[in-house]
Amino acid sequence: MSTEVAEEKVVKKSEALLSKRRKKLVADPLNEDNPITIQVLGICSALAVTVKMEPTIIMALGVTFTIVFSNLLISLIRNFIPNRIRIIVQLAVVALFVTLVSEFLKAYNYPMYKVLGAFVGLIITNCIVMGRLEAFAMGNKPYDSILDGFGSGLGYAWIILAVSFFREFLGSGSILNFKVFQALGIPYVNNGLMVDSIGAFMILAIIIWVQRTKTGYVEQ
Amino acid sequence: MDLVNLGIKSIFIDNMIFAYFLGMCSYLAVSKKVSTAIGLGAAVVFVLTIIVPANWMVQQYILKESALTWLSPQFEGMNLEFLQFIMFIAIIAAMVQLVEMIVEKVSPALYGTLGIFLPLIAVNCAILGGSLFMQEREYQSLAQATSFGLGSGVGWFLAIVGIAAIREKIRYSNVPGPLRGLGITFIITGLMGIAFMSFLGIKL
Are A36 and A46 in contact, with CB atoms under 8 Å apart? Predict the structure, then answer.
């Protein structure tokens, strides 16, 4: 696996806390290098939890938390991990943080824990987390890794929030469980296709289409 | 008969890809050619059929509340379920390694085809997802867990081989630039999902 090292300039003084290069670490995954639409990672959970916005927000928070902290931990111990067993070490670290998220959710928001069900556990195999650990945290300093994890988390979050917004709006006629069409008095027949998995595929495809038209990215 | 029904249900109705989106990453990444898709699909079937029952036993005899009483009665009421994720992922990683070594020893030909895909499988959501669903749906026996694992694997296999075949053909079509690759694959998957929805009507 190739490890991308953020361009190592000869830094004479200590670098500013939010230098240009570091801002890029956070900003890049939002659009140009988005984990979902460009790198094609973390699709499983992105689609499964996006029927309603509320679980989606929880999921986005959970994933961001997991990426940031496992990036930090792996980055701290990166020089002590034998190369051959690094995948297992990474999995164990991620599993640790996912267990924290899951226990936290079980204690403070049990209904949401039931709704998300197995998908909290599936953050472990979320390719974004593993991908960032493998591609970034294994070769970079802790602070940079935190920023990188935060950027990837946000890039993931805004895509799944957009998907869930359309799915809930068109599929259940509501936003964050607030019945918009009913409140406005507009008769609207819920579109069952959006609640189903098919709606998720279609909406994500449309988001990708729009985004790639803007950035001009073409595959192959 | 129940077991057969459960298997068929998990192939068509509760399809891993079309109903639960599990294993999408490798589904999208490795579906450019039918031959590689078949290799990965076979590996997933193989591993799911072994790992779901293995994790069922872990769940039943180690993690569940009062599960350790077979060891000594003083473990009555002990609940280790918070260790579930770490245990499951450890079992999966270990099993995948083990399967890789056994296959290499027993059948070098099969290893040649599956070889590169086996390590990938440890981080395939479909495997962990299968284990977590198995726990969530509370299957009562080892046979049920095996049937569920096999069925889910076959369902995943069908999905990836199907999409790979379509993608091989669509390479010659004039797809709008920004939609090429990922975008059109999603749309096709959605359409395939609609086809699979027709199985919902079957009552088993």
Answer: yes
Residue listed under structure tokens 């249900």: B9
In this complex, which of B85, B179, B197 lies closest to A121 when CB atoms are compared? B85
pTM confidence score? 0.83
Q: Which helix (H) or strand (E) holds A23?
A: helix A20-27
Compute CA distances B130 → A158, B126, B163, whole Å.
28, 6, 21
Q: Which residues from chain B sit within 8 angstroms of residue A208, using beta carbons?
A: 178-179, 182-183, 186
Residues 6+ apart with CB under 8 A from A38: A32, A217
Total H helices, total E strands in chain B: 9, 0
Query: B11 and B155 in contact (C-beta within 8 Å)?
Result: yes
φ/ψ region of B183 (left if φ > 0, alpha if ψ in -120 to 50, else beta) reads alpha
A11 within a domain of the structure (yes/no): no
- pLDDT tens, A191-216? 888 888 888 888 888 888 888 888 87
- Within-domain flag for A154: yes
ipTM for the assembly: 0.79
Cβ atoms within 10 Å, residue A85: 11
- Chain A: nearest CA to B32, how far in angstroms? 12
Residues of B with Cβ-Cβ distance to A211 under 8 angstroms: 178
Residue A119 resides in a domain: yes
CB B8 within 8 A of CB B150: no
Q: Which range marks the domain in which residue A149 is found?
A: 23-214
Assess if residue A192 is contained within a domain. yes
Q: Is A95's CB within 8 Å of B85's CB?
A: yes
